[in-house]
Amino acid sequence: MNKSKFNVGLLQLQIGENLEANVKHAAEAVREAAQKGANVICLPEIYRSQYFCQKEDIELYDLAETIPGISTDVFTKIARETGTYIVVPVFEKRSLGVYHNSLAFIDDDGEIQGIYRKMHIPDDPAYYEKFYFTPGDLGFKAFNTKYGKIGTLICWDQWFPEGARITSMLGSVMLFYPTAIGWHPYEIEEHGKQQRDAWMTVQRGHAVANGVYVAAVNRVGFEQPVKEQPGIKFWGSSFLADPQGVIIAEAPSDREAVIVAEIDLEKIEYIRRNWPFFRDRRIDAYGDITKRFLEN
Questions:
Q1: Alpha helix (H) ranges present in the chain?
Q2: What amino acid positions are annotated as catalytic residues?
Q3: What angle do CA 200, 260, 175 make, to 5 degrees?
Q4: Fewer beta carbons under 10 A from the terminal one: N or C of the chain?
């Protein structure tokens, strides 16, 4: 392979009710991506279980796992066997009563290089994440690989330009956003297209503004773990955008997919020379960005 290029694998999965089966299915998908030539592979957000945050229930803390733990035991072995880097999102049990929405970044030697903990935690109908997850306290992260630094954020983080900017400033050549996002069934007809388009647009904007590749890795399928609620139809549509925001690979909205696509480091250099946003940043004028809101 040309040293300026490498392949990423985006695993769009449908998540079932059986935790063990979900891990096995994800492991098979990782191996498939590796066989297709992927060098860095990403699973969807909290891939091991259905999206349980649709209700508040303290018994659901039992779904959490430690790092190292169940998931990392499986994927460190696969990373070592396949020589790939793997982004493994987990519901992390940090200690008694402290839980995070996290991911482990596993290197191609099968070692846990580090952890990222989701910084922005939503609280919306059927996305009651503040009940379960303590906000991340490790800051933004860019992990070393032989291909360049890989930045990782998680789902709700994808709406915030500050997270993308800082992670890019750490030297990332691409950003992964493992995700669990979809439609409330009663909103699809009126708002579905706009919601999905906004989701894709904001992440394409991060790619352009920072001169990086951006990959969103979503789950797919209908999940209704709370029978008294309407459930969520996850819209799939996992995609990879290049530094000009062009979508160069995209999964369907209604089924699983293992997407493998190419990252070209020379393109990043070329785009940043022509759109030198980092050069022209007015870092002397941005102090107010750390405030909650500005009063005129």
A1: 19-35, 70-82, 161-169, 188-210, 265-274, 277-280
A2: 45, 118, 155
A3: 45
A4: C
Long-range contacts formed by 63-69: CB under 8 A, 24+ apart: 63/19, 63/91, 64/90, 64/91, 64/92, 64/93, 64/99, 65/90, 65/91, 65/92, 65/93, 66/92, 66/93, 66/94, 67/92, 67/102, 67/104, 67/112, 67/115, 68/112, 69/93
Whether residue 57 is predicted with pLDDT greater than 60 in this model: the reply is yes
- Which amino acid would we find at residue 125? P
- CATH number assigned to the domain with residue range 5-290, chosen from the 4 options 3.90.1170.20, 3.20.20.70, 3.40.50.10490, 3.60.110.10: 3.60.110.10
pTM beyond 0.90: the answer is yes
H-helix or E-strand spanning residue 118: none
Percentage of the chain beyond pLDDT 70 is: 99
Q: How does strand 232-235 pair with strand 172-178?
A: unpaired
Dist. CA 265–CA 193, nearest whole Å: 33
Residue 260 has a pLDDT of: 98
Determine the average pLDDT of the residues in 4-26: 98
Q: How far apart are CA 106 and CA 104, in angstroms?
A: 6
Give the integer Cα–Cα distance in Å for 4 and 81.
Answer: 24
The domain locations on the chain are 5-290
Phi, psi angle pair for 66, to nearest 5°: -90, 165
Torsion sign across C-alpha atoms 120, 197, 54, 72: negative
> How far apart are the two ends of the chain, measured CA to CA in Å?
55
| Cα 99 from Cα 95, distance rounded (Å) | 7
